[in-house]
Structures are given as structure tokens and as C-alpha cells.
């Protein structure tokens, strides 16, 4: 399994990365985890615009899903349109929410380009991948994902505060893409996001092979995020996410 970080900027695009998007490839099958603001552009550095086989959305905050609207344009009006509908695994409100964001009525909505499949906690097959979705700790319906294939596993936190379910999803994973939106300071809101230290604590509890700190908010000093992570008790390799970074879990 090959994991490419397309976008890792938290909450909005930064100068060096779009918002959340991760490309997972196995046996020629290409799946996206999130399609946040700006990510459709950077995605085309890695694969063709029409080479996406499935999309999974952790939650419906704009920085995780909004480029579905632009992608609808590409698949509906592109040179060889209509293109086959792409399955989009997402919270049940996705079709109505994203149609509204696009500015179209509910019926017919984005279903001309996408087959929306409502997410619920549990495991299911998508192409060569087994995806396990679990509810994480965020103010809206939000999932973390564990994706396994060929004896390897990657876990993506989505957006979450401290969360036992994230530890379960990440247990023994080869790679944990864990959000680190906050830097350590007094008075941080609970049940929203993690600091680097908290991300590392989750990585330690789950005993993952590698931790990549992601959902990095542009106004933070990222060296501080990395320094925070060094105090989380995780003794494996860890680093900051970077748009364009590739992890080959073969
Ligand atoms: Zn976010
Ligand atoms: Zn969010």
C-alpha cells in the first residue's frame, strides 16, 4: 500500500499545502481519504483527474470535503463526460450539505457524479482495502479510519480530541496520520483537536510503527508542534506531514 499526503494543512489551506487529503493506492486502485479545500489541485500532481476509484470523507467540515464540489464539475462537464459515478463514503448528511455548498437543489444533486454511501461505525471492503470507520471526538459526526491491505495498515485520525476509539483504530498500525492542530497552552478547548503531545500519547498507546503529525494549522509554529510531540511518550519515529510525502508500506 502506498500512502501519499496530498494535503495536510489544518482548517484551511496554507502556503505549502491544501487542506486534508490523503491518497491510498494498492494494486492500481486509488482511494482518497478526505477532499478538503484546495486538494483537488495538488491531487493532480500525483494521479490523473479521473483516476479516483473511491472517496471517503471523515466529516463535513469544509477543510475535509469541500473540493467534492469542484470535482463534481470535472466529472460532469469534463471532455469525456459523463464519467462513471465515484463512490463517496461519508456521513449521511453529505449529499444535501455538499449540494447546498455547490448551490444546486437537493434533487437532482451531486449524485450524477457520485454514489454517496452513508458511513456508520464498522468494517467493510472498498476495492483491495478493508476500511474500518470509528466515531471520534469532534463536535460533528466525525470518523477516524483504519485502512488495511496486504498485511499493512494505516490509520487516519480525521479531526478529533482525545479519543479511546482512535487508539483502537490505530492499534498496531504501521502508520498513524494523526491530527495535531493545537500547540500546548493553558485553556485549550476539550473534545475538538489534539496537540502534538496528545497525538504522540495516542501513538504510544496504540503502539504504531510510525507517527505523522498532520492537520497542521498555518498560524502555528510547526517546530513547536514537533517539540510537543517529543513529550508524548512515543518512542517510534515521528515527523510533520508534508504535502507530497509518500509512505510505501509494502
Ligand atoms: Zn479539520
Ligand atoms: Zn473538523
Summed up:
This protein has 250 residues and is an alpha/beta fold. The protein has 7 helices and 14 strands. The mean pLDDT is 97.
Structure commentary:
The chain has about 250 residues and is α/β, with parallel strands linked by helices. About 20% of the residues lie in helices and about 30% in strands. The chain has helices spanning about 40-45, 60-65, 65-75, 95-100, 165-170, 195-205, 220-230; strands at about 1-5, 20-25, 30-35, 55, 85-90, 115-120, 120-125, 130-135, 145-150, 150-155, 175-180, 210-215, 240, 245-250. The strands form two sheets. Strands 6-5-4-3-2-1-14 form a seven-stranded mixed sheet. The chain has a seven-stranded mixed sheet with strand order 7-8-9-10-11-12-13, covered by helices on one side. Helix 5 crosses helix 6 (about 195-205) and helix 6 (about 195-205) packs parallel to helix 7 (about 220-230). The radius of gyration is 17 Å and the shape is globular. The chain starts with a strand and ends with a strand. The structure holds zinc ion (2 copies).
> How many β strands by DSSP?
14
Summarize the main sheet: 7 strands, mixed
Classify the secondary structure makeup into a structural class. alpha/beta
Spatial strand arrangement across the major sheet: 6-5-4-3-2-1-14
Mean of residue pLDDT? 97
Q: What's the number of helices? A: 7
Task: Indicate the radius of gyration in whole angstroms.
Answer: 17 Å
**3D shape:** globular
Order of helices and strands: EEEHEHHEHEEEEEHEHEHEE
Low-confidence stretches: none
Task: Identify the bound ligands.
Answer: zinc ion
Q: How much strand content do the residues show?
A: 25-35%
First-residue to last-residue Cα separation: 6 Å
The residue fraction in helices comes out at 10-25%
